[in-house]
Amino acid sequence: MTNPWSNQMPVVQFRVARPTDKLDEIIRFYGEGLGLTRIGGFENHDGYDGVMFGLPGVDYHLEFTRHVSGSPCPAPTEDNLLVFYLPDRTARDAVANRLHEMGYPAVEPENPYWKGSGITIADPDGWRIVLQNTSGMRIG
Q1: Would you identify the CATH topology of the domain 14-67?
Q2: Which of 98, 106, 116, 134 has its CA 20 to 30 A from that of 11?
Q3: Which fold has domain 81-132?
C-alpha cells in the first residue's frame, strides 16, 4: 500500500476522470501518442467502458470512460490543460512529432505563457495537453 500524502489529506491515490464519446481515439492518443502506460480498464460495468493510464504508476492516473448512452464531453475552455513536464527537449519534440503524425498538430495556447517552452496539442475531444520543456515546478 502507498503512503498517504499527509496527515491532513491521507490520500493514497489520485485519479482524474473524464467521460468521452471517442474512447478508442482517446486510448490511441494517450497510449500510443503520449506513451502513457495503460494500467487498467473495464468493459460494460453498469453501462460504462473505461481505461486508466498511469502517471507514471498507479498513485496518479487518468481515467477515461464511455457510457452506452453516450458520454459527450466538450472541453470547457482552451485553457483547461494537462501539463506534462519533459526536461529533455529532444524527447518532448519526439512526442509532439508522434502526435502530429497521428493527426494532432500543435495548437495556439490560450495563455501565452505556454508558448515559451511548451507545445500545446488538443486531444480527440478538444481537451488540451501541454508538453512543457522544463524540469517541472519548484516547490519551496
Answers
A1: 2,3-Dihydroxybiphenyl 1,2-Dioxygenase; domain 1 (3.10.180)
A2: 134
A3: 2,3-Dihydroxybiphenyl 1,2-Dioxygenase; domain 1 (3.10.180)
Greatest distance between any 2 Cα atoms in the chain? 46
Dist. CA 128–CA 34, nearest whole Å: 12
Angstrom CA distances, 77 to 16, 59, 73, 135, stand at 17, 27, 12, 26
How many Å apart are CA 69 and CA 51, to the nearest integer? 17
Contacts 24+ apart (CB under 8 A), 53-57: none
The CA-atom distances, in angstroms, between 133 and each of 31, 63, 112 are: 20, 25, 15
What's the pLDDT band for 130 if we cut at 50, 70, 90? very high
How much is the pTM?
A: 0.91
